Amino acid sequence: MDNFLQVLLDGVLNGLVYALVAAGLSLIWGVMDVINFAHGEFLMVGMYVSYWLGFILKIDPLFSWVAAGLFLFILGAVTYKIIIRNSLGKSGMAPLLATFGLSMVLKNFCMNRFTPNFRLLSGTILEGKTLSFGGAIISVPQLVTALFALVVLSLLYWMLKKTRLGWAIQATAMDKEAAELMGIKTENIFLLVFGIGGACVGITGGLMTSYLAVYPEVGGLFSLIAFVVVALGGFGSIPGALLAALLIGLVESFSGFYIAAVVKYVAVFAVYLAVILLRPRGLFGW
Amino acid sequence: MSMVSRKRTLFVALCVLCTVLFAGSAFAEEKIIKIGTLFPLTGPSAVSGQNCLNSVLAAAEVINNANPDLNIPLAEKAGLLDGYKVVIVKADHQGKPDVAKSEAERLYNQEGVFAIIGSYNSSATKPASAVAERAKKLFLCGASSSAALTERDFKYFFRHAPTDAIESKEFTDYIEYLNKEKNAGIKTIGLFYENTEFGKHAADEGKKAAKEIGLEVVADVPFNNAATNLSSEVQTLKAANPDVVFGAALGADYSLWVRTMKQVNWLPKMAVNYCTGYQNPAVQKELAGDGDYFMGGMSFSPELAQKFMPEAIKVQEKYYRPLANQEFDSDSLQEGVMLLILAQAIEKAGGLDTEKVREILATETFVSPLSLSGEVAFEPGGQNVKALSVITQMKDLKYNTIYPTKYQDSEPMYPMAPWDKR
Fold it and tell me: How is chain B split into domains, by residue range?
């Protein structure tokens, strides 16, 4: 029973982290129909921002996530302004290839500037802290990241559903030309969406440095899982991304413990394939 | 075409011809030996790959410059044979076997390298050395430890490192020593390894050696490298609660493994590592105190070198540290050693005849002050029969040698101190 609870909690915590990584991707994909291949590298950049703030200025990841989120908001907006805007409408593959190129640039820039070394922050406020719950142990840094995920996703959902900006974003996603006729500056909406997408992944990266090593390739598998989460949850659906991420986290955790650790990603991608075959628009897509 | 423009064309053509001819003769006079290096310079093992490359570059400096202060064969004079310089041609296999194969082909066929040194990951060394064997070219391997590499009866493949089989035997010898001398009561074992050629082979050898001394295998946990988390893997280990764990996790996976064990507040009584993230001082530095009490097989540590390999320290300070900004580690040093051994073989062969150099590598014993045993000799298949490693234990960022007793500089700390009592 202890093991079951532990595996369940691990799955939920990992799932919530995946949800936050995937939220930005889902938003960009849903609104702009652009696959951001540099999403994993955005996560890596967010982690580096938090790491260097912690290493040089001794700012704990509990606070430096703000800077990481802000930095990635700017990086996302600049990416839109310089790269995406110019590749939109040229060919279906152009934005995808452009973001792929950006991912290579970011990865190799970090490799060159920071070396491939793994960097771990020591002495953080949450380091080594655990909670005991019904015989299971919860890692506090992971718990805090998961709680942040819930808060950020709730805010994102509230913004999309209850604010004028959110309505404008939804209108742009539904019909760009009609939105423009209604007076919505879709150019600014796209810029904001890319910025918000970047900020979400930046916040995640900023918090993750409290328990995970940062290195130039760290975003690889996270971004792959984020793609699965978005496709599984339904493009552009924040609740869908949350539920899909929780499903992925639980499948990964239970298959890893009860079948074999080495098949956990096999199980994740098998579930993804099964859902896509049976319901191509994802679990909660329209 | 007018007369003037025809003359101009002729003049330009002559200039081009002269340039090509002079350049050709200049290249012909340039005495260089191209040696390829094939390491993971990007990807999950990039840190170790960069260290390996820097070690080979440091060894090339030893060969190319006159180093009368170093008591290493060929160090005193500058260059090889009658003034040949070693030029290193770098390639990156990213930790991927298919890339390793194509890069090996490129190095031999397009770059025209005389030999390749590499490739750190056994899974990459295997296909790359197969390319060498087919092309009848030399492939020298420093650190890859899968025993299968030297069980293929290859003629052009030579490896310096002790194999997983040798290390596994050493680990179980140590367990027997602890059980007998320290009444350690080690009865069960768990294996935690990356799901690659290296990891699987290390685990197989570990299980075989454990069986021989009657240890019960209670956990067999392979994992995918560069994973987002190792929660289920560590949970599986914790549930089985083995007395000892043999680990084979490289770089970032090693630090994630250690940190995850800390998160779930669990440790075995003892954790011994094959050539992995444990041996990398940069990884240990990042882990700080969390890396303490873990153990691993090593052919080099700064502490060990002070006593038994003083020349390694000199090379480290003179050439390696300025490149890598850190000390040698067990894996990287062995890659550099292989260049020094190859240089000796070329010198003895008196030229760049691959067959002659191969024959000398296969039959002679080489003096190697940068190897723990001080010598290198290869048996058929290419394994270094003089390969030696010791078991060290990390404490306060120092690798203390704890076994064999001949090399021991510290008492083993057994069992590992629990996380809450550090």
Answer: 29-162+304-377, 165-298+390-421
The answer as to CATH 3.40.50.2300 being correct for domain B29-162+304-377 is yes
Q: Do A118 and B228 touch (CB under 8 A)?
A: no
- Say whether pLDDT at B23 is over 50: no
pLDDT at residue B8 is higher than 70: no
3-state secondary structure of B275: coil
**Whether B413 contacts B396, CB under 8 Å:** no
Q: What is the pLDDT of residue B25?
A: 44
What residues does A137 pair with on adjacent strands?
A: A132
Tokens of A181: 């006729």
Put simply, whether A257 touches B (Cβ < 8 Å) is yes
| Residue bearing tokens 């609104």 | A31
Residues sharing a CB contact under 8 Å with residue B139, sequence separation 6 or more, in sequence order: B104, B115, B116, B118, B128, B129, B132, B133, B154, B156, B157, B158
**Closest residue of A to B231, CA-based?**
A10
What phi, psi does A17 have (nearest 5°)? -65, -45
Mean pLDDT of A212-217: 88
Contact B263 A130 (CB under 8 A): yes
Helix ranges (DSSP H) in A131-237: 140-162, 164-174, 176-181, 186-208, 219-233
Domains B29-162+304-377 and B165-298+390-421 in one fold = yes
Stretch B248-274: mean pLDDT, rounded?
91
Please compute Rg for chain A using Cα positions: 19
DSSP of B128-175: HHHHHHHHT-EEEESS---GGGGSS--SSEEE-SPPHHHHHHHHHHHH
Q: Residue B43: CB partners within 8 Å, gap ≥ 6?
A: A217, B49, B94, B95, B96, B226
Nearest CA in chain B to A225: B228
Residues on chain B touching A253 (C-beta within 8 angstroms): 231-232
Cβ-based neighbour number of residue A81 at 10 Å:
15
Distance, C-alpha B313 to centroid of its chain: 17
Top pLDDT among B38 and A120 is at: B38
- Architecture of the domain made up of B165-298+390-421: 3-Layer(aba) Sandwich (3.40)
Interface test with A, best of B45, B120, B191, B228 (most A CBs within 10 A): B228
Contact: B262, A128; criterion CB under 8 Å: yes
In DSSP terms, B281 is beta-bridged to: none
Q: What are phi and psi of B173, to 5 degrees?
A: -60, -40
Touching check for A277 and chain B: CB below 8 Å?
Answer: no
